Amino acid sequence: MSENHSLSPSHVRAGVLLPIGVAAMSFASIFIRFCDAPPLVIAAYRLTLATLILLFLGLPKTLRESRNLSRREILPSLAAGLFLCFHFAFWITSLQYTSVASSVIFVTTNPIFVAIASFFFLRERISPILFLSILVAVVGGIIIGWGDLGKGQDQLYGDFLSLLGAVMATGYLLVGRSVRQKVSLTTYITLVYGVAAFFLILLALFNGDPLFGYPPKEYILFLLLAVGPQLIGHSSLNWALKFFSATLVAVFILGEPVGASILAYFILGENPGLSLIWGGALVLAGIYLSAREEKKLGKI
Questions:
Q1: Domain coordinates of the chain in residue numbers?
Q2: Label partner for 18 (CA 20 to 30 A): which of 9, 44, 108, 176?
Q3: Is the dihedral of CA 120, 106, 42, 39 positive or negative?
Q4: From CA 258, how far away is CA 23, in angstroms rounded?
């Protein structure tokens, strides 16, 4: 009998949704590049609109389940919201200083941080094959963004901001892996997105960025970011965290630079050259190897 028969329907669904989510997230940097609003405003609208849509679709269920949450679920969810807030604050700002390829590459280096933190905090074993697959995928990502390195102070600053975004994403994924074992997807992401939106609004106001008065094009892009990369993209990641390790989810996210670089080439005219082909092949190979290893270890 094939091993696939042992997979639950939820595992199969998560395995389908995860690649779809990564594809949806690949559009984020493209939409952001077309926005003229300040980075913190873009992030605030992305999370605020996503939260409002979630409340509109499932407010009764969310309120009912929220009443039963203990401090052990609420406090980590608040922490995940803060991590998500600063992840977007750092990453979206980085797109003003460096290319889409470099920005997305550095912000998706979190498998390294996730693997280390998962071992120490979640007690998730990192096998030699899984570690190798992470290394292969990360090397592929570095190759994609290599052409944008060393081009000046602005690019380096943008790369540094992206790297800070990766650190924040690590906390976001690790907390989600823990809390999602006990809390339903809708309740969890409504709380997390809502907390992130609240603090992003505060950061935008503190920075002196106006929250209103933008042309219609901006609000359309805000909505596209909320529906696509956030509700479809990030929500699929949070769904998968209940069934897959945080390390595997983080490695899958490395597929985002491939999609974003391809979109940037056709839509924005950013040409990473042969580095995209070779680097993209390594990223996809790393994802395949890590998924096969997790299945072998019985985690999927």
A1: 10-296
A2: 44
A3: positive
A4: 9
